[in-house]
Amino acid sequence: MQTVLTQPHLRRMMAGSFLLFVVFVAVWQWAPGWFGIPHFIIPPASLVWDEFLRMLAKDKLIFHTGITAMQVAVGFLLGALLGIFAGFVLGMSPTTEFVLSPYILALQIAPKVAFAPLFIIWFGYTVYPKILVCILIVFFPVMINVLGAVRAIDPDIVRLARSFTANRFQVFWKIEFPAALPPLFAGLRIAATLAVIGVVVGELVGGNTGLGYLLTFGEGAGNTAMVFVAIILLTLIGIVLYAIVVLIENRVLHYLPARSRTAV
Amino acid sequence: MIAKPDTARLEFRQVTKRFANPRQGGVVVAVEDVTFSIADGEVVSLIGPSGCGKSTLLNMGSGLDPATEGQVFVDGELVTKPNRHVAFMLQKDLLLPWRTIRENVELGLEIQGTAAAQRRETALALLAKCRLSDFVEHYPHQLSGGMRQRAALARTLAVDPVVLLMDEPFSALDAQTKMVLQQDLGRTLADTRKTALFITHDLVEAIALSDRILVMSHRPGRIIEEIPVEIPGRDNPMTRRQDPKVGVYVKRLMDLLHVEQAAA
Ligand SMILES: Nc1ncnc2c1ncn2[C@@H]1O[C@H](COP(=O)(O)OP(=O)(O)O)[C@@H](O)[C@H]1O
Ligand SMILES: [Mg+2]
Predict the structure, then answer these.
(1) Burial A56-84 (b: 16+ CB within 10 A, else e)
(2) By alpha-carbon position, which residue is closest to atom 27 of ligand 1?
(3) Using CA positions, which residue lies closest to atom 1 of ligand 1?
(4) CB atoms within 10 A of CB B25
(5) Element (H, E) at B29
(6) What is the rounded distance in angstroms from the CA atom of residue B153 to the CA atom of residue B127?
(7) H helices present in chain A, as ranges
(8) Among B94, B139, B197, which would you mutate to test the A interface (most chain A Cβ atoms within 10 Å of its Cβ)?
(9) Ligand 1 pocket residue status of B73, Cβ below 6 Å
């Protein structure tokens, strides 16, 4: 990494990214005024910043952000673990997959966010409905990718291991598990972008905590800047989660040729 | 592995293999009534038209697939499951992309529970013999096809098998690389006094590398001829393939395989 950052073309790319960001904020600040767009439609950057500071002081913004982030983290972790587990089990047992496939398909097609009101009926205005929706959303991309990876393993590699007298656990630990890691991380990246959605929908439907709650509160109060602040913070939570996944991925999959890894 | 004296290292006794095949009316007889044995330190090639059951024989020898009728013995012991006396090598190198070359060579030893230090020592010694000392900590994708196949040979030899089973190991390589690897293999087999069953469709390769050639018929595969190769210098395939007698053997094999009729 260190050596990569010193390369001149990469520095230029970073400078380009930063410049683009400055231009973006500038346009956000002044363009609405030029086109006569009122502040309650698009509040300029400075107004959103002021609102952010006000919410920090008055609206327990850190508390609400923390709650949402915690739910995202827990939901993502549990959903990913469950997806990994189910992916391996179904990948190794075609019979189980065949028997369960109609239910899995149905559950995958069902819009997961529609479960939010149901979970609230079951668990009330607690953190659990939000975490559950998150788990449900995260589960599928992870499971599908692991399942596909296990199926795609060259049977001759498994036979090679077995010819060395490998037992079932050794085949899993030395072949199937490491072979499934690249698709697993691809699934985790997708899941990371979806995890926030699960939690926010839960918060929008009910309760009085989290950024989703602030979002509906801002809407009700006609406070567009507040809605902007909530959206930006939600995006940041997603970006942090995604970055963590990519960071771990780069450490675990260090053996892959550099060109097969991407920035996004 | 200490081999017992006076027994054949690999022996097939009246082996028949049938596959269930619903489309072709029930069963396919892949090989029928195959009997042969390979003595200690002997290298025997198996040639025959494609689909005649060569790979099927090799799989039964490795203990991965059972014979329908008859028995296979390795070192005098009936083969019923994969065992430490045999190791196989295929056309595909089957190197694991997440392991370095050294770790790949250690795979069999790791599965068999050898201590890490000893594994490492064995792997490094074999990689030196296979002229891969400069690449021990490289990953497979960083090596050429010929180097990868040499690493696969080192992995096969690492478990110190009594019998090596090789299924067209060089058929995916270009002509020159192939000759270099044949030379490596010829030397290594002579140095280590290993017993080997070598499948190939390259007639000159069979002549250059082996003590004896078994010729198989079309499906159902039977052994139709056994040809001892009476050319000196099996440990040096490079000069052996230039021997004037090679042409005579090639002609004989072509007749047996009906190569000319097929071309006419
Ligand atoms: N697992 C299997 N199921 C059904 N038929 C098989 C199977 N493996 C091999 N066969 C059949 O057995 C015959 C011999 O195959 P194989 O041993 O791979 O031939 P070779 O290696 O000589 O080219 C072929 O006709 C092939 O279709
Ligand atoms: Mg074959």
Answers:
(1) eeebebeebbebbbebbbbbbebbbebbb
(2) B51
(3) B19
(4) 7
(5) strand B26-38
(6) 9
(7) 2-6, 8-34, 45-58, 61-92, 94-109, 116-123, 128-152, 155-163, 168-171, 177-205, 211-220, 224-252
(8) B94
(9) no
* Sequence-separated (6 or more) residues with CB below 8 Å from residue B70: B12, B13, B14, B15, B16, B33, B34, B35
For the Cβ of B47 lying below 6 angstroms from any atom of ligand 1, the answer is no
Nearest CA to ligand 1 atom 21: B55
- Calculate how far, in angstroms, residue A140's C-alpha sits from the geometric centre of ligand 1: 38
pLDDT in tens, chain A (264 residues): 444 556 788 889 899 999 999 999 999 999 988 998 998 999 999 999 999 999 999 999 999 999 999 999 999 999 999 999 999 999 999 899 899 989 988 988 999 889 999 999 999 999 999 999 999 999 999 999 999 999 999 999 999 999 999 999 999 999 999 999 999 999 999 999 999 999 999 999 888 999 999 999 999 999 999 999 999 999 999 999 999 999 999 999 998 887 566 665
Q: Is the peptide bond prior to B220 cis by the omega test (within 30 degrees of 0)?
A: yes
Q: Which domains does chain B have, with CATH numbers?
A: 1-85+199-264 (3.40.50.300)
B164 burial via Cβ count (<10 Å: 0-12, 13-18, 19+): buried
Q: For ligand 2, an ion, list residues with CB under 5 A.
A: B 55
Instruction: Retrieve residue B139's tokens.
Output: 């990953």
- ipTM exceeds 0.85: yes
Burial of residue B165, with CB atoms counted within 10 A of its CB: 0-12 exposed, 13-18 middle, 19 or more buried: buried
Listed in sequence order, the residues at least 6 apart from A74 whose beta carbon sits closer than 8 Å to its beta carbon are A131, A134
Q: Do A164 and B108 touch (CB under 8 A)?
A: yes
